[in-house]
Amino acid sequence: MPFLDVEIKGSRSSIGMPALVDSGATSTVFPFGVDTEIGLECSSSCDVKGIGGKSELTRTKANLTILNGTMCLHRLKDCPIMVASQETQLDFAILGRDTVFRLSRITFCEDIQEIWLKRC
Predict the structure, then answer these.
(1) What is the spatial distance between Cα 99 and Cα 103, in angstroms, rounded to a whole number?
(2) More confident residue, 29 or 115
(3) 15 pLDDT higher than 70
(4) What residue spans define the domains of the chain?
(5) Per DSSP, what are the bridge partners of residue 107?
């Protein structure tokens, strides 16, 4: 699976985690509790349906840094994201089409497990 690293920053702190680059995901989603842990204010909630079934997510904005190892690929200010409203098995972020896909041309090489991004 194509993973990058992402750092999400809130008003209290920041946290880094792996992020799946998911061309089938409309939105960028973070695991349950990230918002309270780093100090993000969520505005509203909605139900979404995906491959894992129906989930309730809350909307917010955050500053994101998308990394490939130690190389910074993108810094996004006030990026719209969603956070899981309840405990799930999701322990990584999902980068959907609303973030990295709008900014980059993405190439996956499955054989060598690499991902390349080129800014649009």
Answers:
(1) 7
(2) 29
(3) yes
(4) 3-119
(5) 116
